[in-house]
Amino acid sequence: MAVYELKPTKQPPLSERGAIAWIRHNLLSSPFNILFTILSLWILYIIIPPMVKWFVLDANFVGNSKAECTGDGACWIFIREKFKIFIYGFYPESEQWRANLTMGLGALTVALAVIDRVPRSIKIASILMLPVVAIILLSGGYFGLAYIETNQWGGLLLTLVIAAVGIVLSFPIGILFALGRQSKLPIIKTLSVFYIELIRGVPLITVLFMASVVLPLFFPEGMDFDKLIRALIGITLFQAAYVAENIRGGLQAIPRGQYEASEAMGLTYWKRMRLVILPQAIKVAIPNLVGSFISLFKDTSLVMIIGLFDLLSMVTLTTNDRDWLGLSTEGFVFVAIIYWIFNYLMSRYSKNLEKKLDTNNKD
Amino acid sequence: MPTQEVIQSNNTKDLSEVMIEIDNINKWYGDFHVLKDINLTVGRGEIVVVAGPSGSGKSTLIRCINRLEEYQEGLIKVKGIEVNADVKNLREIRSNVAMVFQHFNLFPHLSIIENLTLAPMWVYGKPKKEAVETAMHYLERVNIAEQAEKFPNQLSGGQQQRVAIARALCKSPDIMLFDEPTSALDPEMIGEVLDVMIGLAKEGKTMVCVTHEMGFARKVADRVIFMDEGQVVEENDPETFFNKPKSDRLKLFLEQILAH
After folding, report:
1. Which helix (H) or strand (E) segment is A313 a member of?
2. Measured between alpha carbons, how far apart are the two ends of chain B, in Å?
3. How far is it, in rounded angstroms, from Cα A76 to Cα B155?
4. Which of B82, B149, B188, B240 suits A114 as a labelling partner, its CA being 20 to 30 A distant?
5. Do the bridges between strand B32-44 and strand B81-82 make them parallel or antiparallel, or are there none, so unpaired?
6. Does residue B41 have a pLDDT over 80?
7. Is B66 helix (H, G, I), strand (E, B) or coil?
8. Considering only CA atoms, which of B61, B18, B2, B6 is closest in space to residue B204?
9. Which residue of B has its CA nearest to A274?
10. Which domains does chain A have, with CATH numbers?
11. What is the pTM of this model?
């Protein structure tokens, strides 16, 4: 019988370390891969230089009218001149500090929600407070603030209001429908299934039309319901169905033992859901939830069809301005960048959250 | 047997006080008759081991006691309270009866200490400090106090099951139900869990254990019950049960299980 000594650990050979190894494994691992790498480099060569030219080298940054856009590149003067209207819509200039404050509070709320050390109670309180504070601040009529009708709200401000309200309110409603769908009570279950399937079978545009045109028919005459509120109701109810389906996916991933153990403990139904089942189900559902929130953020641009001027419709509107005709490319590129920033941040945050909540592999 | 003496000297044991009374229950899954006319009475401090081949209905039976499963005929009473749809009864029963599962069923999103304090805080409304103290007490008892801040999936199977037992103890139940507590464990971890269970048995906790650990049954059980095809086939003290089985089915079962 042989006895072996413990061997010392060695570093891998030089060719398996650092950048060289990365290139070898990822770019040049097989003939097909090499071909692909060359093809990709060629495509980048075709695309990048003209883009840099258009965006920066040939672009115009200085000036304040279209006449000063002389180069072949982008006319960023347009964006700078119209920046305020893209952000605030027709919100009166003298009151725009209120919009800024609201967006600042929104950013603060997000920051509080993202930072680990903040107690959960403060996170939830700030998220719930935000819509109330935002509506008082933006519409005014109280505390000496001038009243500003919602049809003056617009641009990015409106996009953010719709998206934030839609996300925050659809979440609890969606959870209720998801639980309803799993309920043992036939009436609740049937109603939940009916609602979810009905909404999911219909495009958002239809729901918005219903909320904006059909809904008022049911109200008593003379009762005028704010257009924005109607849109918010429509979007929230629409999004709730998708949240419900995402959460249901999460609920189905929870092993039966978790339900049984929490039940055997003597916890009531709502405590079981709140303390044991939902935290796990939501964790599983996060990627899908964020996916549907990103969709919602983009879909807010559909409110255009019921006459609300969100970021995209504001840009469309200004490109028709007689003094700035022919600059829609700049406008849409700007919109795309804004949408991309917000959606990318959401997607990054969800990645982070997934990692943080993954207690399964924590060492 | 020395262990037997310890049990009998424990003053909480009083078989005349009925803790669980199962009166002629029947249960079906659809058309499948899982439990057939089951009768069983468990006294205070009694240790009952339920054995039998898989599919014999033994797990279903003990899950009827805390109503994780419903039965269609007959009656189960826990400390005189009927196990039925009544919410108040159910709350009372579940606070008296704790259960340990085959797959531990710890809550993976909560740390060990949070797993243990959940029921005391949210079912009994105990302040956090008190709940943590109780939890630490029981964690020490199962020799795992140093893992309190970890998450379930960082522990071995044996450790997880000991945590699950500590969690069950945190609500100071009168009755403990064990549903194959060692079946999902690696062989080298079975011992540590059984040691904890033997400790509880010696303290006079009323226990109903579904298990294949015949060594455990021999050592601490007051009664061993053999189930097959939804019926109680044989019921006896461990001595007679193992050494003088009467029915052919039990003889066959013991042969299979003790052969190696």
Report:
1. helix A311-319
2. 24
3. 59
4. B149
5. unpaired
6. yes
7. coil
8. B6
9. B122
10. 87-91+148-357 (1.10.3720.10)
11. 0.83
Whether the pLDDT of residue B251 is over 60: the answer is yes
Among B248, B97, B237, residue whose Cα is nearest residue A266: B97
Span B124-159, pLDDT tens digits: 999 999 999 999 999 999 999 999 999 999 999 999
Among A264, A280, A361, beta carbon nearest to B68: A264
Per-chain mean pLDDT for chain B: 89
DSSP string, B147-160: GTTS-GGGS-HHHH
- DSSP secondary structure string, A200-213? HTS-HHHHHHIIII
Give the residues across from B76 on adjacent strands. B22
pLDDT at residue number A359: 58
Distance CA B165, CA B140 (A): 12
User: Comparing C-alpha atoms, which of A119, A154, A313, A123 is closest to residue A227?
Assistant: A154
Nearest-10 crossing angle of helices B157-169, B128-141: 130
Give yes or no for a contact between A162 and A208, defined as CB atoms under 8 angstroms apart. Answer: no
Report the C-alpha gap between B238 and B219 in whole angstroms: 8
* pLDDT-based confidence at residue A363 (cuts at 50, 70, 90): very low
Residue B4: pLDDT band with limits 50, 70, 90: very low
Give the CA distances from residue A279 to residues A141, A164, A215, B127, B244, in Å, rounded to whole numbers and listed in that order: 40, 22, 36, 22, 52
Q: Vertex A97, ends A91 and A99: CA angle to 5°? A: 55
CA–CA gap between residue B141 and residue B168 (Å, rounded): 13
Predicted pLDDT at B22: 94
pLDDT of residue A223: 66
Q: In terms of pLDDT, which residue wins out, A363 or B130?
A: B130
List the beta bridge partners of residue B232: B227
* Residues of A contacting chain B (CB within 8 angstroms): 255, 257-258, 260-267, 271, 275-276, 279-280, 283, 357, 359-363
Q: Evaluate if residue A10 carries a pLDDT over 70.
A: yes
Nearest-CB residue to B151 (from A267, A280, A362): A362
CA distance B65 to B177: 9
Tell me: pLDDT of A217 over 60. yes
Assess contact for B225 and B57: CB atoms under 8 A.
Answer: no
Query: Locate tokens 């033994």: which residue?
Result: B58
Assign B1 a pLDDT band (cuts: 50, 70, 90): very low
- Tell me if B119 and A266 make a contact (CB, 8 A cut-off): yes
CB atoms within 10 A of CB A253: 12
Nearest chain A CA: its distance from B204 CA (Å): 21
Q: Place A224 in a pLDDT band, splitting at 50, 70 and 90.
A: low
